[in-house]
Amino acid sequence: MAEKKIQLTKKDRLSVAWRSTFIQGSWNYERMQNGGWCYALIPALKKLYPKKEDRAAALKRHMEFFNTHPYLASPVIGVTLALEEDRANGAPVDDVAIQGVKVGMMGPLAGVGDPVFWYTVRPILGALGASLAISGNIVGPILFFVLWNIIRWAFMWYTQEFGYRAGSKITDDLSGGLLHDVTSLASMMGMFVLAALVERWVSIKFTPVVSQVKLSKGAYIDWDKISMTHSGLQKAFTQYQNGLALSPTKVTTLQNNLDSLIPGLAGLLLTFLCMWLLKKKVSPIVIILGLFVVGIVGHVIGLL
Amino acid sequence: MSAISIILVVIVAFFAGMEGILDEFEFHQPLVACTLIGLVTGQLIPCVILGGQLQMIALGWANIGAAVAPDAALAAVASAIILVLGGQGAKGVGTSVAMAIPLAVAGLFLTMIARTLAVPIVHLMDAAAAEGDTRKIDFWQVVAICMQGLRIAIPAAAMMFIPATTVKNVMEAMPSWLTDGMTIGGGMVVAVGYAMVINMMASREVWPFFAIGFVVATVTDLTLIAIGALGLALAFIYQNLSKKAANGGGNGGNGGNGGNGGDPLDDILNDY
Question: Where are the transmembrane segments (chain A) (predicted)?
Fold first, then answer.
């Protein structure tokens, strides 16, 4: 311990963070993220263990099974960096301790990453971008891409640094409610926005005509009495603004009836049906193909 | 398509394939992948529209545990190529969306193959680790990532050898009842993705948020950003109140009542 301490610089840690972007690159059915994990740590291990046999041992212990949410790997990497640094400087940190921290953190963290990133942030940003893109607006994809990557990179860098500074103490910090708070916030906001998306974007239109009512005179615009001049058009638009109908018969479709209960009701029911089918272990792909068949058949028989 | 366009499309497909496994930059999301293909083939606007529609369908697609989601990367890349080759512009979007679904299933099998092939690669990395050879580990990691890129780049390249006239003829030969029906189906398919996500997140505590969100969305003046802000604010309010209630309840218990805290609002008021 007489020698001077080896410390990881900010440059080393940035290099590890950048490499952790590729953590899932060699995802495999045997040990999942292990290859990417080891790949990410290489700049640090190279610096900490200049002797070849030490380095080989370090590389081997980081080829063990590892799997978590790819972004939530960052705090685990931070903690591991702190532990490896201590060990390289002579502290009694054994393989079991390092492996224990990795395994102990990956499970709970994956449980946070999925609802926060895959079920809340991505659907919200995706829907925001898509709603612009559907009308041909190029801002949609750009907005999605830029915002997503800023959030992702900020999160990965900050949590890795947090893990590095906190070291093995992090497990206490995380279980102290912070994780729970973030997850529950995300699920509340996520459900709120999802409901809005269901209302806005699940589209079913039932076309069957329920009733055709002849309107009384004065309730619709009498086009025969409108001349195609400036003043004539002005009159027609004024009448339209006053709530006069465009044609002498009022057509009510099944859809109009449903919408008068609450707009989007049909889409909501369809979503509930899908949820039920999914719970019955029907594959999402089967449901998707089924809905296309329903769409085509329904259109041919005039229901949709 | 010009040679340059073909090369650029293959590059875009390669990135989409990489991201299909990495899930970091999100090049594989339809919104981004379709837009990039539109950009390099000069048909930007129709591809942006296609990307938007596919994104709506793919919002809830995520690989979690045993649930295997369809593959967004191949679906986005291949259907954008079909749209471009078909040359129908924005009119062909509905059909391309429907084409994307079987492609998403095909992509799933390719993913499974790639993930199995990664096993021997990791064994090579083991061997390199035993020698302490970091360069070799780096090398095999890059090989594994490239393999994932090729997973999409090869099918994309193959598709571009189909003559544009053939795609065009097939697209135009489709009767309107079929294309209209598929467009209607596309509007309903969106529900599946949402249902997947809701099933994962739903709990007794969060259902009221769903109900409020649904009703608020019927106010068509509100944009998605407004709805998001409202949702976040409500979530914060709820969390703060429930924390206060929990603290207040605890104090009440210490105060000697011995009960379970009683009415939480009452306890908050008593604390003041």
Answer: 138-158, 178-198, 260-278, 284-303
ipTM for the predicted complex comes to 0.84
Q: Which residue of B has its CA nearest to A41?
A: B134
Which residue in A has a C-alpha nearest to residue B50's C-alpha?
A134
In a domain, A4, yes or no: no
* Angle between the N-to-C axes of helices A179-201 and B224-252, in degrees from 0 to 180, rounded to the nearest 10: 140
Q: Which of A171, A201, A231 is the last residue of a domain?
A: A201
Chain A touched by B206 (CB under 8 Å): yes
pTM of structure: 0.83
Is B35 at the interface with chain A, CB within 8 A?
yes
A188 shares a domain with A141: yes
Residues of A within 8 A of B188 (CB-CB) are 202-204, 270, 291, 294-295
Three-class secondary structure of residue B76 per DSSP = helix
Q: Please indicate, yes or no, whether residues A230 and A286 belong to a single structural domain of this protein.
A: yes
Using the Cβ of A125 and the Cβ atoms of chain B, whether some distance falls under 8 Å is answered with no
Question: Which chain A residues touch B69 with a CB distance below 8 Å?
Answer: 284
Q: Which residue of B has its CA nearest to A301?
A: B177
- Together in a domain, A107 and A182: yes
A27 touches B at CB < 8 Å: yes
The C-alpha of A149 sits at a distance from chain B's nearest C-alpha, in angstroms, of 6
Q: How many domains does chain A have?
A: 2
- Searching chain A, which residue's CA lies closest to the CA of residue B62? A118
Domain range spanning residue A101? Answer: 10-201
pLDDT tens, B253-262? 444 443 444 4
Rounded CA-CA distance B91/B161 in Å is 23
CB within 8 Å: B32 and A141:
yes
Same domain for A172 and A285?
no
Residue A3 maps to a domain? no
**Within-domain flag for A42:** yes
Query: Contacts from B145-148 at CB under 8 Å and sequence distance 24+?
Result: B145/A22, B145/A25, B145/A26, B145/B18, B145/B21, B145/B22, B146/B18, B147/B114, B147/B117, B147/B118, B147/B121, B148/A25, B148/B17, B148/B18, B148/B20, B148/B21, B148/B22, B148/B114
Are A197 and A112 a contacting pair, CB within 8 Å? no
Do A94 and A195 belong to one domain? yes
pLDDT tens across the length of chain A (304 residues): 445 678 899 999 999 999 999 999 998 888 989 999 999 999 999 999 999 999 999 999 999 999 999 999 999 999 999 999 988 988 888 888 888 888 888 878 887 888 889 888 998 899 899 989 999 999 999 999 999 999 999 999 999 999 998 886 665 555 556 777 888 888 899 899 999 989 988 888 888 887 887 877 777 777 777 777 778 778 878 878 777 777 777 788 888 888 888 888 999 999 999 999 999 988 888 888 899 899 999 999 888 8
